[in-house]
């Protein structure tokens, strides 16, 4: 029976030896030419094929954008953690307190509103877009612009290569 359990491991080991590296992984490590060759090999097409070149450009853009997001990842991790905690706490809170959970959240919403009204006068009569500008939070617009810049750079580098 142990031999039967080892068969998937042998298949995996053979795949590691036979299959080429992932083009995305190679590109993320900076081995762009090797990534391009690997992609062509995986698709069984020539490197001059338009489809291979397009997919390669898409991979480079995704990798550059992922590295940009990773560099700015703490802000997103914090947001994710806060959402996770609320999602984790809410079901037992509703189960144990019934409608008390809603009173709890409503109370915090009221306190937050009162605090904002009295202690943050700069928020009065302003839209969310104006608040983003006020607090210099243009992350969504910046990410969109950054992706376009990365795409343009990658396309320009590829045309001259």
Characterise this structure.
The radius of gyration is 25 Å and the shape is flat. Helix content is 81%, strand content 0%. The chain is built from eight helices and no strands. It has helices at residues 2-18, 23-28, 32-43, 50-71, 73-97, 100-119, 128-134, 139-160. The protein is mostly helical.
The average pLDDT value, as a whole number, equals: 82
Write the element-wise H/E pattern from the N-terminal end onward. HHHHHHHH
Largest sheet: none
Strand content: under 5%
| Through-space gap between termini | 54 Å
Low-confidence stretches: none
The total of beta strands comes to: 0
Helix residue percentage: over 70%
Radius of gyration: 25 Å
Given the helix and strand composition, which structural class is it? Answer: mainly alpha
Number of helices: 8
User: What general outline do the C-alpha atoms trace?
Assistant: flat
Task: Record the SSE blueprint.
Elements lengths: L1 H17 L4 H6 L3 H12 L6 H22 L1 H25 L2 H20 L8 H7 L4 H22 L1
Task: Name the features.
161 residues, mainly alpha, 81% helix, 0% strand, flat
Short description:
The chain is an all-alpha fold and 161 residues long.
């Amino acid at each position: 029976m142990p031999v039967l359990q080892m068969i998937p491991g042998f298949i995996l080991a053979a795949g590691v030896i036979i299959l080429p590296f992932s083009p995305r992984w190679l590109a993320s490590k900076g081995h762009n030419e090797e990534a391009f060759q690997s992609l062509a090999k995986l698709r069984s097409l020539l490197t001059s094929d338009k489809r291979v070149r397009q997919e390669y450009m898409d991979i480079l853009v995704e990798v550059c954008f992922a590295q940009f997001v990773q560099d700015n990842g703490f802000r997103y991790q914090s947001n994710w953690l806060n959402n996770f905690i609320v999602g984790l706490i809410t079901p037992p809170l509703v189960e144990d307190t019934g409608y008390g959970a809603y009173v709890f959240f409503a109370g915090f919403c009221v306190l937050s509103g009162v605090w904002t009204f009295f202690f943050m006068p700069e928020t009065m009569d302003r839209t969310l877009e104006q608040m983003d500008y006020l607090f210099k939070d243009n992350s969504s617009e910046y990410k969109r612009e950054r992706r376009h810049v990365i795409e343009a750079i990658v396309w320009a580098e590829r045309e001259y290569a």
